Amino acid sequence: xxxxxxxxxxxxxxxxxxxxxxxxxxxxxxxxxxxxxxxxxxxxxxxxxxxxxxxxxxxxxxxxxxxxxxxxxxxxxxxxxxxxxxxxxxxxxxxxx
Length: 97
Hints:
Layout: E1 2-3, E2 12-16, E3 20-25, E4 31-33, E5 37-38, E6 44-51, E7 57-63, E8 67-77, E9 87-96
Parallel strand pairs: 1-3, 2-9
Antiparallel strand pairs: 3-7, 4-8, 5-8, 6-7, 8-9
């Protein structure tokens, strides 16, 4: 998954247990993405992340068990705390057997 992507970004996805999910959050000038968190790690476990060129964040997760979890991140303006507002990214993942 890549964000921001098209005009209508993906908000939900359904995957099978064991599926590896790679998320790429593209940075915009002077913004940096926070690590992605899972609302239910027993369902979707975050495995790790790394920063790519220009502040883009690449995250890897695995669907662990049937259920649903929301993956969340936000970007922040890096030059200063009084800059433009942050953007929030969310993806609801439904895991089936």
